[in-house]
Design a protein that fits this description.
The chain is α/β, with parallel strands linked by helices. The chain has two domains: 106 residues, Aspartate Aminotransferase, domain 1 (Alpha-Beta Complex); 221 residues, Type I PLP-dependent aspartate aminotransferase-like (Major domain) (Aspartate Aminotransferase, domain 2), CATH 3.40.640.10. The protein is built from 13 helices and twelve strands. The strands form three sheets. The chain has a seven-stranded mixed sheet with strand order 2-8-7-6-5-3-4, with helices on both faces. Strand 3, helix 5 and strand 4 form a beta-alpha-beta unit. Helix 11 packs parallel to helix 13. The longest helix is centred in the C-terminal third of the chain and has 24 residues. The termini are far apart. The site of pyridoxal-5'-phosphate has 13 residues, from helix 4.
């Protein structure tokens, strides 16, 4: 029987969903063409040694559900970060974990404050939770404007997002400014410190969760295996925080949300921290070289603390990205504001630099 496609269903879509922009994934190379993907902030390296074997082992048991809360990985993460297992919750990528955080702590009538431009999932996830998203413009040089974020907090604010390093612009929040900010945030407002790129940070003054957790029980850190650990395709992320907060996130989490292959791959990868750090060091060196070369061309590239650089191309963003595609390099254009380029293979970066020189 042919599926009837002519009749439009009358089921109403929640207005918050109907009005949402779609999440835009980094462009993939066209089928059959040799092209480099510098559009999704992925690792250019293959999985760490032993990870593929672990995935194959896990595949033998896929007729079974995985562990309900990925307990093996959660325990390994707790030991790694020096916290209790009850202080860690894992999920299907940190974007899913953030969704669970927002479901647990926000709803209709609440506000979620976030920097903008920042990670594009923030407004989408805030709206999905039923809350109102409040975007606060960035300050100079692509940095988060912490005083402006503070000023945006109202009695309805339940969650504030801090993205450090900020995707897509690059700078990290400094320890001193974050401490001042947290001292002033009401203690019943949750602050989510999104540290997706924390492994790449080289600024010695940059803040981490460990710097602020002892004095600020209202902070949760969001982390991922998608970037430095190179497991983007398996989808594993997690949050760390006080047990009462993490317990609430667990209640909102998708049951069996981390599959067995992902759990094992992440656990093995975590045990290979030194090998991961070697790879990160290579990416950081290439990132800094790319940023310097772009600055030498005249681009005002902000401080790059993630695995990517930001070109404030303004109105040229989309045509620039089209030119890069023609040169075999996929980058992420944000219409009217800029272009984000992930640090990738040296030949891809070289090709990108040649395109950038023509637009500088
Ligand atoms: C700032 C930030 N947070 C979170 C994520 C989500 O990562 P994942 O869901 O792959 O763990 C990303 C992905 O690009 C990101 O840039």
């Amino acid at each position: 029987m042919a599926l009837c496609v002519s009749m439009s269903p009358k089921v109403p879509v929640r207005p918050a969903i109907a009005n949402l922009p779609d999440y835009v994934a980094g462009a993939r190379p066209p089928v059959g063409r040799r092209a480099y993907k510098l559009s999704s902030n992925e690792s250019p390296f293959p999985p760490l040694p032993g990870v593929l074997a672990a995935v194959a082992d896990a595949a033998a048991d896929i007729n079974r559900y995985p562990d309900m809360i990925a307990a093996g990985l959660v325990e390994a993460l707790a030991a790694h970060h020096g916290v209790e297992s009850a202080q860690v919750v894992a999920g299907n990528g940190s974007v899913a974990v953030l969704g669970h955080v927002l479901t647990a702590f926000t709803g209709q009538g609440d506000e979620v404050v976030y920097p903008w431009r920042s990670f594009e999932a923030y407004p989408i996830l805030a709206a999905l939770s039923g809350a109102t998203g409040v975007g606060v413009p960035l300050g100079a040089e692509g940095r988060l404007d912490l005083p402006a974020l503070l000023a945006a907090i109202t009695p309805r604010t339940r969650v504030v997002m801090i993205c450090s390093p900020n995707n897509p612009t690059g700078p990290a929040v400094r320890r001193d400014e974050l401490k001042l900010f947290l001292d002033a945030v009401p203690s019943d407002v949750l602050v989510v410190l999104d540290e997706a790129y924390v492994e790449y940070v080289t600024d010695p003054d940059a803040a981490t969760y460990a710097d602020v957790a002892p004095d600020h029980p209202n902070v949760i850190s969001l982390r991922t295996f998608s970037k430095a650990y190179g497991l983007a395709g398996l989808r594993v992320g997690y949050a760390i925080g006080r047990g009462r907060l993490i317990g609430a996130v667990r209640k909102a989490a998708t049951p069996f949300g981390v599959n067995a292959a992902a759990e094992l791959a992440a656990t093995v990868s975590l045990s290979l921290d030194l090998a991961m750090r070697d790879r990160v060091a290579a990416v950081v060196a290439a990132r800094d070289a790319m940023a310097d070369a772009l600055r030498a061309q005249g681009w005002a590239v902000p401080d790059a603390q993630g695995n990517f650089v930001w070109l404030p191309a303004g109105a040229d963003a989309v045509p620039f990205a089209q030119d890069a595609t023609l040169a075999g390099v996929m980058v992420r254009a944000f219409d009217g504001s800029g272009v984000r380029v992930t640090t990738g293979e040296p030949e891809a970066v070289q090709a990108l630099l040649e395109v950038a020189a023509t637009w500088a």
